[in-house]
Amino acid sequence: MCRQSQPIGVGDIAGIEDLYRAHARLVFGYLLRRTRDEHLAADLLQETFVTATRAFLGWSGGSAEGWLLAIARSRLVDHARKQRAELPLPTEDELDAPALPAHSTVEIDDVMSRLKSEQARLLRMVYVDGFRTSELAVASGQKESTVRMALLRAREAFRVAWNANDSNGESKR
What we know:
By secondary structure, this protein is mostly helical. It has two domains: 13-83, Rna Polymerase Sigma Factor, Chain: A (Orthogonal Bundle); 92-163, Winged helix-like DNA-binding domain superfamily/Winged helix DNA-binding domain (Arc Repressor Mutant, subunit A, Orthogonal Bundle). It has helices at 13-35, 38-55, 64-83, 92-95, 105-113, 117-127, 133-140, 144-163. It is globular.
């Protein structure tokens, strides 16, 4: 288990190894789902932990899962920018959630702007970033059932806001 109560220094090899053993599988799973390439996911996992190792100086603990997944996402975005290739979008099965309606991003952004910021953020993390509810639960320190309920409420709020639009895309407010 990773020690989170004391800061980990650059020379604390045991702390780094503990962190890797505890979280590499979660991070690799996230990267594999996003890239659908086992070798690329392994390379990005290595880059994630190299970045994390460099950042250990001054890290005082907290949610290691959330921190590592944020680094992994950053490495993934950097890789996509370098390759100038688009990553495949996750399927409904991979998201554990139904897909949003296929409309213009302007319409969707308008509806999202009318949601509570926490709801919009949760929907983006699931539908855009590709996080599963189990990953969000680990990263946030909440029960998975709590995250699923919040996602259900966010979807319902999106549906209500979406239905408030008339056929021209203008708000009925």
